[in-house]
Amino acid sequence: MAAGVACAAALAALTAVPAQAHGPEHRAPHWEPKDSGTPDVRFRGLSAVSRTTAWVSGTQGTVLRTTDGGATWRNVSPPGAEELQFRDIEAFDARRAVVLAIGEGEASRVYRTEDGGATWTESFRNTDARAFYDCLTFLDHRHGLAMSDPVDGKFRILSTDDGGRSWEVLPNDGMPAALEGEAGFAASGQCLVSSGPKDVWLATGGAARARVLHSADRGRTWTATDTPIPAGDPAKGVFALAFRDRTHGLAVGGDYRADQASPQAGAVTGDGGRTWRPAATSPPAYRSGVAWLPHSRTAALAVGPTGTDLTTDGGRTWRTVDTGSYDTVDCTPDLGCWAAGEKGRVARLES
What we know:
The protein is mainly β. 4% of the residues lie in helices and 40% in strands. The protein has one helix at 2-16; strands at residues 30-33, 43-48, 54-58, 63-66, 74-75, 85-91, 97-104, 109-113, 121-125, 132-138, 144-151, 154-160, 168-169, 192-195, 199-203, 211-215, 223-226, 236-243, 249-255, 266-269, 277-278, 289-292, 300-304, 307-311, 319-322, 328-332, 336-340, 346-350.
């Protein structure tokens, strides 16, 4: 209880403290690094279970888990996966998790554990050389989806109804045609997200327009909507989505190339993704991850290689609150927020 009260105070302070009030007389809430012991790994997959328990996944087939708030990390990587890139992980608790490896053909795989990573079962291996899976999401403990870049002109959706033990490719007759060059970005595990028992959103880029696709029936049928986030290049588009309910959502992205500007890197929807409007003040640079702060209707964090931004007005305006490099962010109902990224970086929001 004390930890929850302290973190609640930290989150309240984060939304109230001006960006310049970071002097020694006022210690603003901040990312507190947690030593993962893996400086050569980049973590783009993150699943926060609570303030004490979190899973991260990344390069070199690496999966780590903490159950003590990041004080220690256990390497629970699937054996023989050293050549794989685990770009997304979805954990149900401290023992059960599903992790997605991305890549062309058989590099795209799904593994599942029920014992905290002591053992893993490979539950899906892509055998279609044209498919490239990017992201994974679970709507509840049984129903989950994964998405692939377009095959035969449409995004491909993989579905499970048994918690990731088995998977099937859904029919594509309810999926609108992809634009030329359109694809997803496996940058943070947030190009496919869900809210509630049936609603799912898919973020795209690389084409003339950056779009968000929405399904209200667990991936059977979809509608596509343009966003104001710039595209028109393989490196540009929507990289991450976050929905606090089935109507209120945020989109962030930009151009992931470090030498390119990313104007209009944020957008917001209040109607479930049917329409998107640009942020009045966007994050100042490319952002690859975004998450709503717990129990808030207006506050959220966006992260990227050049910093973390905060909105306190539902995505209309953003301000930078940290300049550290993170690729992905996730928050939990018990008031825990975690971030992860390059060089083994993992952090938790502290006051």
